[in-house]
Amino acid sequence: MAQTEWDALKELKKVQARMNSLFENALARTNFDTDGSVGAWMPVADVYESDDRLTVSLELPGVDQADIEIRVVGDDLVVEGERRMGRETTEGEQFHRVERSYGPFSRRFPLASTLDRDSVDAVYENGVLTVMIVKKSGKHPGPIRVSIR
């Protein structure tokens, strides 16, 4: 039976790789908010367009509808809110794992000038927020070809 020699440097590199993976996974679930601190989270979103409207759909499971605010600020659609843990710990109780993100969130979506900012409508169902903005009426020009002199 062959013996292998223990390599301290090799073991240290393995520990470093595991620690890097741990931090990368933890930070991937958070967002750095405006003051640069860790703790905020960012819900995933789909943005799609049809002939008559722009639709923004955000996954917000576990967020109470009363904790969601939707505003149009300048040329941006702003969706903000907070997901609360929903329970208090009792004395002697401790968590072994917390994988879901909690706390405030904020998303900004730029709005094209072809959208009617007065026509924003929203529906919240089954943890999904859908925000619809109607396009302004009238024919919007397509791409304009510019000749070079």
Account of the 3D structure:
- With 149 residues, the chain is mainly beta.
- The chain has a domain at 39-86 and 101-137: Immunoglobulin-like (Sandwich), CATH 2.60.40.
- Helix content is 14%, strand content 36%.
- The chain is built from one helix and seven strands.
- The protein has one helix at 8-28; strands at residues 45-49, 53-59, 68-73, 76-83, 103-110, 115-125, 128-135.
- The strands form two sheets. Strands 1-2-7-6 form a four-stranded antiparallel sheet, with no helix packed on it.
- Strand 3 (68-73) and strand 4 (76-83) form a beta hairpin.
- The longest helix is centred in the first third of the chain and has 21 residues, at 8-28.
Write the layout of secondary structure elements.
Elements (H helix, E strand, L loop, with lengths): L7 H21 L16 E5 L3 E7 L8 E6 L2 E8 L19 E8 L4 E11 L2 E8 L14
Antiparallel strand pairs: 1-2, 2-7, 3-4, 4-5, 6-7
| End-to-end CA span | 82 Å
Strand content range: 35-45%
Shape: flat
Main CATH class of the domain at 39-86 and 101-137: Mainly Beta
**Mean pLDDT across residues:** 83
Query: Helix amount, in percent?
Result: 10-25%
Lateral arrangement of strands in the main beta sheet:
1-2-7-6
Give me the secondary-structure category: mainly beta
What is CATH's topology name of the domain at 39-86 and 101-137? Immunoglobulin-like
Biggest sheet character: 4 strands, antiparallel
Q: Looking at the chains present, what oligomeric state does this protein adopt?
A: single chain
Q: Order of SSEs, N→C?
A: HEEEEEEE
Q: Count the DSSP helices.
A: 1
CATH architecture of the domain at 39-86 and 101-137: Sandwich
Question: Care to count the β-strands?
Answer: 7
| Spans where pLDDT lies below 50 across 5 or more residues | 31-38
Q: What is the gyration radius calculated from CA atoms?
A: 24 Å
